[in-house]
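[09:14] KT: can someone run the structure on this one? pasting the chain below
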Amino acid sequence: MSRLYELIFIVKPDLGEEVGKAATEKLTGVVEESKGEVVTVEEWGKRKLAYPIEKCNEGNYVYLRFTAPPTAINEMERQLKLNEQVIRYLTVKIDPAKAAPVEEEPVEEEPVEETPESEQEPLAEEGGASNE
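[09:31] RB: done, structure tokens below
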């Protein structure tokens, strides 16, 4: 039985984005091995931390949204604990009834042509109804 989860982890900033990508690939591999599905992967980039962690004031944030059985979470968190470049992580189980839908890329709409004022029909005159 698969459940919907969100995982955010922070990688040390001085190592570049390659470390975050490697950790993401390892975690998505764990999800796929457990017959789960990765829904969303977002790299939020370098952000300032609220307080220093392991003498770091910034960190590279990575967000994962996936479905997996509960046993996969133990393996994912074990992988995160073993990775010395990950300074924090948080896994949250999402209630499917309250889950926000995954945002799709916006579809470009066709521009609406505006008619010049000289071609527009005149509006009704102010001052009430006319008695013609």
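[09:33] KT: thanks! The longest strand covers residues 37-53.
[09:34] RB: yep, looked fine to me
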